[in-house]
């Protein structure tokens, strides 16, 4: 259970690394905004946070850890919203 949750968190973490590398200023198309990069970073953090948390929960209660995976359904849209808020705040729109 713990290994599975950490594997999912690692896969999500690799998405975060890929986002950071791909959104470097030297690789961005002209007109791309810094705020959108932060939006993607925040969104990429959502699933790894849920699965690392579930791995910690699994040390005490594996059934509860499995149930905590449903938090992805709440945390990802919340991260999407927060990412959009940060994007508007950074880009000034």
Describe this structure in words.
- The protein is an all-alpha fold and 93 residues long.
- The radius of gyration is 15 Å and the shape is elongated.
- It has one domain.
- Helix content is 78%, strand content 0%.
- The protein contains four helices and no strands.
Task: Give a nutshell description of this structure.
By secondary structure, this protein is mostly helical.
Portion in helices: over 70%
Task: Return residue spans where pLDDT drops below 50 for at least 5 consecutive residues.
Answer: none
Q: Please state roughly what percent of the residues sit in beta strands, choosing from under 5%, 5-15%, 15-25%, 25-35%, 35-45% or over 45%.
A: under 5%
Radius of gyration: 15 Å
Q: Compute the number of strand runs.
A: 0
Count of spatially separate domains: 1
Taken from the alpha-carbon principal axes, the silhouette is elongated
Which structural class fits the helix and strand makeup? mainly alpha
Largest sheet report: none
Average pLDDT, rounded to a whole number, is 93
**H/E element sequence:** HHHH
Alpha carbon gap, first and last residue: 43 Å
- What would you call the quaternary organization? single chain
Features of the shown structure:
4 helices; mainly alpha; single chain; 93 residues; 0% strand
